[in-house]
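Bug #2210: token dump truncated for DDE Tnp4 domain-containing protein?
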Amino acid sequence: MDSSSSSSDDETIIAFVNRLGQPRKQRVFRNRTDNFLEWDENEFFNRFRLTKRCVNIVLDLITFKIQSSTDRNHAVTPAQMILITIRFLASSAELKSTFLTFPNDPIVIQNIKKDFYNIAKFPKVVGALDCTHVKIQSPGGLNAEIYRNRKQFFSINVQAICDSNLKFLDVVSRWQGSAHDSRIFQHSKIYSGFQNREFGDSILLGDGGYPLKIFCITPLQNVNTPSENLFNEAQIRTRNPIERAFGVWKRRFPILSTGIRLNVSKAQCLIIATAILHNIATIDKEQHCALPPLPREIEEAINFVNNVPNNIHINNNNNYLRNRYVQYFEHLL
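Reproduced locally. Full output below:
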């Protein structure tokens, strides 16, 4: 055996033995920032787009689900989980039943109708209906192209109904970007509920992309009389909250427009989760807090995603469904 090789091996063994006798290097745990103490209300809102009060509401609801059972290894606290990742996706089903459900209480429905009526005197309205596209990455596979919409980007076409205060009452996030708004509506649970008269004489207001139904009133394509003009004006003004709700929602969570880089099932969960957060913020009156300005490229992304063209339904055979509302507005002239 080569003497130099033997000497090198001996030195390695001696160095290893010497290390065994040395104290183990102590692990260093950096102090984590307490964001509730670090930032005042304005700075906190600018960073997280939710107030401290709103985050605490979510914490109270799901802390027991996400809290570590021990403090070993300086486990991340529930508050840190919320602020870093909005880690309540796994609990969205329970929260959805509380914060994202269509009302069936007659008193609640009546109050919603009153609020809508106060906008432009349109009667019986319980919700404003529309769809919006949420940008996603290509899902891959043989069926990827069904997620490509008319603007040629991949998306999920999300149907939503909101009240006059911009609170979502129903959100459907399972349809591909190529799906037409009317198809999504006619295959939804809420459509069946209205068709079966579960909500009495309540109606929804939709745009021209929806079929005219006794429970879904759309605007006239051609206006010929003052009463028809007043009907259209009232219909559009009363339906406007859904457009505003989409705007607030996407500016609070720009990822809905810049692109969700998750698989489709997780993207669908994320959409529902952000809708729930939007509702919690709305209930807590956060819509009166001005969201901080977004970079120009994000504003452009929001506008681009929002302007996906849709087919117009020609409802000439069902115009009689609008006539009673046109006649109603004629009496208001």
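Output looks complete on our side. The radius of gyration is 27 Å. Marking as cannot-reproduce; reopen if the truncation happens again.
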